[in-house]
Amino acid sequence: MAEQDITQTGPVGLRGLRGLNRTNSNPVLDDYDLFKSNYNMPSTKSDWLNGENSPYGYTSALEDHTEQAFNVGFGDYNVDRKIGRAEQLNNIYNTRGELQSTASQLLNALGQGITTMGTTFLNGTVGLVVGAITATDRGDLSGMWDNDFARSMDSINKWSEEAMPMHMTDRERESVWNQGIGNFVGNLILKPAGFVAGAALSGGAWSKLATGAVKGLSAAIGAGKQVNSGTQFLNNLNNAKNLVKTGNITSKAVGAITSTAGEAAIEALNNSNEKYEANKQSIDQYYGSLVDTQLQDIYQKMPDIDPKLALELAVNEADAKFNYNEALSKLEEDRISTGNLDYMLNFPILMASNLWQAVW
């Protein structure tokens, strides 16, 4: 089989290596088995797609296009079962958008929205406590939005997007106004509604907690006054009780502020991760091009060399020219800085909006 240009397909020419995030290991050697299967296409791949034991049962029309189907991720989603012509593999992302029904898109959007509502609520309650503890322990603002709990919630959201996908055609990706009813309603109404509802619920939970505390304080003051009504001390407490009457506004403000903290944390994590992944893709492509160039040179000089040895030599040559792990470390530092800045900029804007809605 001819060698592939990994500058077009990822670090070693296999879709399974997309999204690598290994800072303590080599991204190419770790996936040698996948690499080898890609360069030496075994018959088992045909069996994987078209064999009697295939979990998919795809049509025989694709039997002569097994390699192409494998490389474009054929079989990753249920909608792929509707693909029956080889030409549909040329742009599988567009094909999926064409084949997914409006009902499926709306149902999946609803599922994603409900998931987002749950994770947003948890981020704004449990996550806020975990974030405060982490930020204090770390001595850095990043703990508020970049902690184990927040990342777990983000993983759940990403899982929901994979498990309940909303596929789009090329035309729909160009502009929101090109989207069909399913994607338009799903992306602009159902999914955002989940985020808004989750933030409102988390704010409401904190607000109720504050209201309970105020009522408890008011009850304690009232009891104290009945026992010692003539003392100056209780007169002061009575004045305090009058101030507690503003507890309704106070509890709403608490809810708005805590809701803001949760929203700002989610925005910071999402935006910093998006920037990280975009830049990491460029790093992976550059590093992959170095490995591919060295690999092709090695095969030209030693065509009978063992593939694993050839790959190891190519990686060593690439590492001598570009430190992949160091580049990822620098990228991680930039991610933290981006997230902190995003959090600080979003917090006052979101708080002003939430306070206005809650108090007035």
Q: How would you sum up this structure, described in words?
A:
This protein has a domain at 25-91. It is 71% helix and 0% strand. The chain has helices at 6-9, 32-39, 43-50, 66-71, 92-99, 102-124, 126-138, 148-163, 170-174, 181-227, 232-244, 247-301, 307-321, 324-359.
Radius of gyration: 28 Å
Succession of helices and strands: HHHHHHHHHHHHHH
Distance between the termini: 69 Å
Structural class: mainly alpha
Helix content: over 70%
Number of strands: 0
Question: Major β-sheet, in short?
Answer: none
Report the average pLDDT across residues: 76
Gross morphology: flat
Beta content comes to under 5%
Low-confidence parts lasting 5 or more residues at pLDDT below 50? 1-60
**Individual helix count:** 14
Summary tags:
360 residues, mainly alpha, flat
Outline of this structure?
The protein has 360 residues and is mostly helical. It contains 14 helices and no strands.
Task: List the SSEs and their pairings.
Blueprint: H1 6-9, H2 32-39, H3 43-50, H4 66-71, H5 92-99, H6 102-124, H7 126-138, H8 148-163, H9 170-174, H10 181-227, H11 232-244, H12 247-301, H13 307-321, H14 324-359
